[in-house]
Amino acid sequence: MERRREVIVPLREQIDRLIEAGSYPAAVCDLADFWRSDPGPATAAFVNSRFEKMRDQLPLHPWRLAILRSFTVEPLVPLLRAEAFLAGIELTVHIGEFNAWAQELLDPASALYRFGPDAIILAVHDYESDQMRLCLDVLRCHSNAHVILHTREAGVIPRRGILDAQIEASEWAEQQKTNAGIRALAREYRGVYVLDYDALVARHGRQGWHDGRKWLTARMRISAARLPDMVREWMRFIHPLAGRVAKAVVVDLDNTLWGGVIGEDGVAGIQLGSEYPGAAYQEVQRALLDVHGRGILLAVCSKNNEAEAMEALERHPGMLLRPRHFAALRINWEEKARNLLEIAAELNISADALAFVDDNPVERRKVRMQLPEVRVVELPQNPMDYAQALRDCPLFERLTLSAEDLQRGQYYADERQRRRLEQRISSLEEFYQSLEQEVEIAPMTALTLGRAAQLTQKTNQFNLTTRRYSEQEMAAISRSPCYRVYVLRVKDRFADNGLVGVAILQCGGQAWEIDTFLMSCRVFGRTVETAFLSGLTEQARQAGACTLEGWFIPTAKNAPSKDFYPRHHFQLVETTDKGSRWALDLASPVACPPWIRLNYAGEHH
Amino acid sequence: MPASITERVRVIAADLFHLPPERITEQSSPELIEDWDSVQHLNLILALESEFKLHFEPEEIDLMKTIGDVSALVAAKLGHRN
User: Fold this and answer.
1) Which CATH number is associated with domain A435-600?
2) Is A224 in CB contact (< 8 Å) with chain B?
3) Residue A600 phi, psi dihedral angles, 5° rounding
4) What pTM, to 2 d.p., does this model score?
5) Residues 6+ apart with CB under 8 A from A14
6) Residue A8's pLDDT band (boundaries 50, 70, 90)?
7) What ipTM was estimated for this complex?
């Protein structure tokens, strides 16, 4: 109880001395610690006034937030501004009049539109979808501001009491329906997002979330003790909306990904597995895997001997994360700040897109002082709480997720391994050799038809004729006795690339023609194209063909496939305004490169 | 009344009203302090309630006209005598 007087007052004085001396990164560190020790109204006022003093010296991102409301939100604002300052955002807040949110949205001359918000929080809890739809339609005519809609919370006790659980049209069912409606409504608009207020209240406990006295006396809906939780939930949205997110999270190893120090305890001695104490670290890895699943890159920065640490990463049975999950690795005895900058450069992102996770408060503080732009995640003291801290971190929030996001981590890891091989291997041939590529050519079936048609639709660069076929057309071609359709699968030591190529041969008689020959840009340039062609010439020859012909039809994008026929010893037959026609005498078929294993699957009938 | 209560109230008020603690006295009131408006009064109540783990009744809130009143009320609620 005496903490404020005896400890906090000196800390305030120390912060003021640091600001006066111009030691801004240190002052920000101390303000962050101070805020975390007591995130209440008085602390918020102190934190905000000190940030306002330093505003011109700090790289703060200005952002304008409007809160339209049906209850007293004023006490939340200083708390929100303090959280935002510590996240590098200088928040200007406009608060709407009580219960006037609809008028403000509908009137283009309202204070809301004059304010010009980047985002609008609709902290209102009782409305009709039709009314909200009208408001959002008008809003979208005048503003591109992001919108955050709260869902409706369930009552602490239903109005009908226990009877509510006995009937079909219960309050609970009604509330679920309303919230499904809110989600559906939000999906109709770009930039309208749902904050699951009901889940938030439930998470913190319905009973403790409310303060009946404050509601009756001051129209405050949220109890004082829960105000910081409301603010943190808003921050989870503000981070991605204001662009203050981590694109990569850089983690330490010892006592972070596993318990113990690998240099002392050895791979067999570290704590990691399904049982305590190793279970705490496995939870950390599980949380990081979930972050990875949102398209956020992972990287390692650890003071260790690389060989030992890699052995644990590759072989320890308790590891959920493996080297393939990491886009960059810095395991050495250099300063962490320097390694972090190298990682940012390697991943081609700026240092302010890095989040740093380390169990050691000294390392964290060092990074916060040396590289104030790097986002340092503060971990609690107990390793059992690390995973929760990662899951709570707003830097890892995303409001949208594309297929590309999901692949990104894997792409970097594959590239890193390929590049490392390229560096190590002197000759190109050895490089191909080391890729251990396996190519499988198979007749198209009903199962692969969809993907094959899709490839004809979207492949541009390595596509000799660029003929687009719908699934229906593809099906018709495959039924015709005059055509054979082949699909290509490529595997290498790093990944199964899946179905990445399609060829359509027009057959019959002694001269066959290549109608379509294409490959995804993921795999061409690794001599896979030669293997594919080799397989096709072999198929044609076995079926009795003597020559294989093909058109190259130039487009704006298929220059990479321009030399394909001459490179494989096809002879030019004719050139027209459409393109060039080439032919190969199958008496000398194309050889498969010796470093590729070529397989045929299935037979044409 | 224990000095620590007065002291803690002053530190909270100083933060909320953006003043150094020595500028907060027993006589400080909304009339004398520019930042002491109705919103900050609510923030003051919330800060005191969380600092001292107590609850004020609406009637008590109306009685808080000066920092001296506030400290005395907190002390009384915590069971201390003036």
Assistant:
1) 3.40.630.30
2) yes
3) -110, 140
4) 0.71
5) A30
6) low
7) 0.89
